[in-house]
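cron nightly-structures :: item 1 of 1
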Amino acid sequence: MAGCCGSNERSRARKLLGPVVWLLIGVFVVGLAIWERQPHHHADVGPHGGPLADWDDGAIHLEIDIGRDEETATIYALDRWAKRPKPIDAKPLTLTLKTDPERVVIFDPDPDAGDPPGRSSRFTARHHVFWPQAKVRGTVSGTAEGKPYSGDVSEK
């Protein structure tokens, strides 16, 4: 008789264990979704030392790295924390500079070795506005996941 009661308790515990596990998984998933939507703080500059623009409420950061000697610039698409590459649609990006007169520079996709086909985490341009003493201030526009985005960038 003693074994019978222990067996029933284990059976009830097993029946409760499944719903409890699913409840904990659900709480974790909801918590993760809420956490992902929170604004994340990052440095004012990216890993290459350039200023950052935000897209998609900070889910994507764009760093502009100016190659001053060659009048070139590179835009890097970065993750939420502005640390690692985040490949986006491999379509040109537009940098509209707040100069007088306003200038528009097109950055062509230049995929990194690890970028998947049709996506790029690096975009490059050559233009005389990227001279040694110039400060970049403007808006970066383009697409990610098929949606249009734009974000302001300002070099200090």
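cron nightly-structures :: done
The chain has two domains: 1-38, 52-154.
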